Fold this protein.
Amino acid sequence: MERYKGKSIFKGIAIGKIKFYFKGKQQVKREKVDNIEAEIQRYEQAKEKAVGQLNALYEKAVQEVGEASAAIFEVHTMMLDDDDYNDSVHNIITSQGVSAEYAVATTGDNFATMFSEMEDEYFKARAADIKDISERLITVLSGGASGSDIGEEPVIIVAEDLAPSETVQMDKDKLLAFVTELGSANSHTAILARTMNLPALIGVEIQESWNGKMAVVDGYSGTLIIEPDEDVLASMKARQEQDRATRELLSQLKGKEDVTLDGKQIKLYANIGSIKDVAMVLENDARGIGLFRSEFLYLEKEDYPTENEQFQVYKTVAENMAGRRVVIRTLDIGADKQVDYFKMAHEENPAMGYRAIRICLDRVEIFKTQLRALFRASAYGRISIMYPMIISVDEVRKIKTIVHQVKAELDAEGIAYGEVEQGVMIETPAAVMISDLLAEEVDFFSIGTNDLTQYTLAIDRQNSKLDSIYDSHHPAVLRMIQMVIENGHKGGAWVGICGELGADTTLTETFLKMGIDELSVSPTFVLPIRKIIRETNLN
Ligand code: PEP
Ligand code: MG
């Protein structure tokens, strides 16, 4: 039994086998093999397994995002069957006497180069698919996990680092916990772990040799225990049981109102990153969705999601929430959320760079596509739209002009849409300081304390070295929240918090006393916060 310390980013206990997650581009060594026949056999078996994974992914994607988006997995299956590709792999194994991993890596590189040099845009784009299937094969051959295929049994994922796009593609049912070496407590991957309700540790010095071993992730003490002994297992199981009992106690609050002892109603909503999270929202009885990070829709894909694909997702979420408010944030790409097909140039300072509303106001077609999908979906439920990273009234006016055009187009096409509340995120000090002016322009504010802390304290939220001084309780941040609430109310806008600070139960009473109208938190925090709201007296 060995213990390794890290930093906990979500509490809870997970017990299970470790699956080592290999990064997109794996380092494959040129290894010689003795038995060529066996190596070819190994390749054929890996291919069969990869086809099985792709079929499963196709079925899942059809359910979740529709047939058009799922088609990519069919294309990958066809590529795995391509004679030229397979001949090349066989040939390299046979003629050079090397491992299947090496033959696949070489073939993948050769084919990807060939495709990327073609004139035709369609074939050019296939280079990425070739890399993808090759990575999949190498992962199967080396027994690790990659992308959304993490095996059949639920596992503890151990990785050097995880990007939000990688985390979001994993199948939640197959995950017990995350353990990474890099990453910060305020990154989007950490936020996703909390949304998925999974114990997670960062800053652990990981070892590949752990792959397949039994382990415990103790999110209370921030410890990873490899091959725990009987005593440790028993005490961890007891702690899991205790957690279950607490959850059961909290579940008695389902169906109860979010009202303080003196009668103030609070909007207690949940944050989501994808359609899959709606089940958690309903299970935890949130009264609405206060932040749907729509950019994850873009992160999951290999090309821009079409208007119809987006419409289907927004419509389904709105319908599932059955009349409860769903606040959808428009695309907040950039900084740590990078999408290849946006082809963004390298930036020295991406958190302060070309991101979020800045991209949308520059590449207006992308923005319009999303707005059309949102307004169309608003005919099927109670959708509100919120704009991220606002710094000026001018931006809001520009947005309004574009919204006006989109509505006029829909009117001309005879397409129905509903009443849509519009709000802005307050996540820059600039937005705080002009919140009195912004309040005149919008229906609501949602304070994004993750970025507001980053920009106010000048601390990169991605930098794990600064985790200890990234302090959302800093008086500067708390005073800003108070100011935004007051200015919002004076201008007739309701005010909420959708950053992680909204789920900090040590501050719930403070926020309520400041006059907050809404708190939007990871689904698992809804009931603990409901408990505090119901025990608070504002008089
Ligand atoms: C925030 O900045 O607080 C926020 C909710 O947005 P994100 O974490 O997605 O940047
Ligand atoms: Mg933000």
Residues 191, 291, 293, 332, 427, 448-451, 498-499 surround phosphoenolpyruvate (ligand 1) (CB under 6 Å). Residues 152 and 174 are 7 Å apart (CA to CA).
